Amino acid sequence: MTRAVSVRLDGEAERALRSLEASGLTQSEAIRAALIGEVRHRRRREELAAEVAALEADERDREEMLAVAEMMESLRGPR
Q1: Is residue 51 within 8 Å of 44, Cβ to Cβ?
Q2: 32/14 Cα distance (integer angstroms)
Q3: Contact 45, 39 (CB under 8 A)
Q4: Which of 1, 25, 43, 69 is a Cys-bridge partner for 30, taking CB atoms 3.0 to 4.6 Å apart?
Q5: pLDDT tens digits along 17-43
Q6: What whole-number distance in Å separates Cα of residue 55 and Cα of residue 53?
Q7: Domain map of the chain by residue range?
Q8: Does 13 score more than 90 pLDDT?
Q9: How many whole angstroms separate alpha carbon 40 and alpha carbon 48?
């Protein structure tokens, strides 16, 4: 089932819509693509944040990161 939605666009949103339409999308296609793209972007950001939290909670991984950082520091030449 489809649903019609009415929105008021500010200048930035209007320019973005025109840009998407210039790429060959209809107004409806452009708006749908933007909405779906935003949801995917937010989900990916949440997934990355969860992955970072899991890595930060992993004591062995943190120890390994510190060991690698120390090794890299020891390989660096004098300043």
Answers
A1: no
A2: 15
A3: no
A4: 25
A5: 999 999 999 999 999 999 999 999 999
A6: 5
A7: 11-75
A8: yes
A9: 12
Contact present, 17 and 30 (Cβ < 8 Å): yes
| Overall average pLDDT of the 46-71 stretch | 94
Residue 21: closest CA among 11, 31, 12: 31
Q: Is the dihedral of CA 42, 46, 47, 49 positive or negative?
A: positive
What is the residue-wise DSSP string for 3-66? --------HHHHHHHHHHHHTT--HHHHHHHHHHHHHHHHHHHHHHHHHHHHHHH-HHHHHHHH
Task: Tell me which amino acid residue 70 is.
Answer: E
